[in-house]
Automatic annotation (TrEMBL):
Annotated region (Disordered), positions in chain: 29-80
Name listed for the protein in its UniProt record: Small VCP/p97-interacting protein
Superkingdom of origin organism: Eukaryota
Gene Ontology, cellular component aspect: endoplasmic reticulum membrane
Originating organism: Accipiter nisus
Assigned keywords, A-Z: Lipoprotein, Myristate, Palmitate
Keyword Lipoprotein: yes
An annotated GO BP: negative regulation of retrograde protein transport, ER to cytosol
């Protein structure tokens, strides 16, 4: 009984002050970024090569989109 009373010796030292809302917000943002980085690299041994492959694929897609002739592809179907 009475475990929450401040008159207990050392109880004031055990109280944890909550940080400013700005500091708390920054810490939460940093933790979220860290979790995203860990999740994105989970199961990938070489994350750098994966990023390079993604960039290369995007570049190829941009080239194809830029060189496309009015939505008409290079393949034609012949029925007959």
């Amino acid at each position: 009984m009475g475990l929450c009373l401040p008159c207990m010796g050392g109880a004031v030292k055990d109280v944890v002050e909550t940080p400013d809302p700005e500091i708390k917000r920054r810490q939460l943002a940093e933790a979220a970024e860290k979790r995203q980085m860990e999740a994105s690299s989970r199961g990938i041994k070489n994350a750098y090569s994966v990023e390079q492959k993604k960039k290369k694929q995007e570049e190829i897609e941009k080239r194809i989109a830029a060189s496309g002739s009015g939505g008409e592809g290079g393949l034609r179907w012949q029925v007959g």
